[in-house]
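From the methods appendix. Each design record in this collection lists the tokenized structure first, followed by the designed amino acid sequence. Records were kept in a plain field format so they could be parsed without special tools. The example shown here is representative of the layout used throughout.

RECORD:
FOLD TOKENS (275 positions):
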């Protein structure tokens, strides 16, 4: 990492997969699958799959006799997921689609996994009802949603810096902080209950995020965010100025979490199991 921009992947989905997945979503996937325990032969839906890390790790667990579908709203994410090497085990069917109107018959899946997706859905009750509808009797949904920013070291300082500099581009705090604005477990419980789930258990997972380059941290994170918040890169020169301003603001906090050339810090998520 870090020796020349010409070697960097270009698209937001590429950067998401190259930078964010190993640093954050791969460790979180271990927590999600530890809780979900996919069994051989099960039919799994990875909802809001992004570039597909959860689906790829679930496929060997359900094996050849099982099946995995990864579904995401963004064509770029699905294209990236399709381009990656297939894992052992179940074949993965990658689908573009909307969590609030799933293109599957009732009772199609034994397990729905939704890692850091629920907070992005415009109608969370509709999405929960769709999860419930596509689950077979006795099936379960397992979701991960970030806790509030007060539980997310470094991301709190990062989000505050982003908010300061993006306000002048007309981007609201709610847009910037969207991934972290469903920190109240009551909101998760309420959405799942409104969608028809009756047995809902919520626990907490703590993961260690580990980015290999402190020097590139801000640029990498902002470019990866652009895969879920495209307005970050609408104007390339404004984006460059924004990255420089955020990096300057974040320097003291980054120094606290520095680990060799990289950065390490902890993040907490609520983990919900709904039946
Ligand atoms: C933070 S990413 C998480 C991706 C993946 N689950 C992971 O753990 O790496 C959130 C994803 O939600 C997707 N998303 C947002 N709204 C959606 C919707 N209505 N239906 C399906 N996917 C959606 C985005 O495209 C994005 O890929």
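DESIGN:
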């Amino acid at each position: 990492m870090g020796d020349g921009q010409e070697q960097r992947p270009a698209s937001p989905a590429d950067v998401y997969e190259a930078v964010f997945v190993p640093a954050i979503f791969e460790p979180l996937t271990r927590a999600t699958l530890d809780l979900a325990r996919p069994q051989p032969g099960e039919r799994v839906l990875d909802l809001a799959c992004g570039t597909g890390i959860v689906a790829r790790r679930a496929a060997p667990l359900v094996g050849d006799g099982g099946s995995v579908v990864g579904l995401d709203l963004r064509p770029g994410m699905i294209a990236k997921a399709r381009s990656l090497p297939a894992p052992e085990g179940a074949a993965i069917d990658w689908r573009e689609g909307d969590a609030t109107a799933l293109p599957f018959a009732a009772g199609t899946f034994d397990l729905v996994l939704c890692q850091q997706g629920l907070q992005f859905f415009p109608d969370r009750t509709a999405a929960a009802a769709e999860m419930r509808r596509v689950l077979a009797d006795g099936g379960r949904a397992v979701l991960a949603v970030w806790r509030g920013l007060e539980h997310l070291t470094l991301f709190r300082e990062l989000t505050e810096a982003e908010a300061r500099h993006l306000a002048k581009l007309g981007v609201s705090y709610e847009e910037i902080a969207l991934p972290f604005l469903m920190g109240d477990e009551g909101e998760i419980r309420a959405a799942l209950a409104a969608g028809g789930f009756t047995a809902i258990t919520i626990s907490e997972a703590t993961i260690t995020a580990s980015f290999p380059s402190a020097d590139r941290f801000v640029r990498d994170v902002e470019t990866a965010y652009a895969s879920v918040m495209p307005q970050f890169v609408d104007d390339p020169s404004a984006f460059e100025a924004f990255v420089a301003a955020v990096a300057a603001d974040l320097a003291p906090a980054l120094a606290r979490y520095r680990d060799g050339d990289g950065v390490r810090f902890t993040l907490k998520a609520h983990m919900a199991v709904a039946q």
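APPENDIX NOTE: Residues 5-274 form a domain with the Rossmann fold fold (CATH 3.40.50.150).
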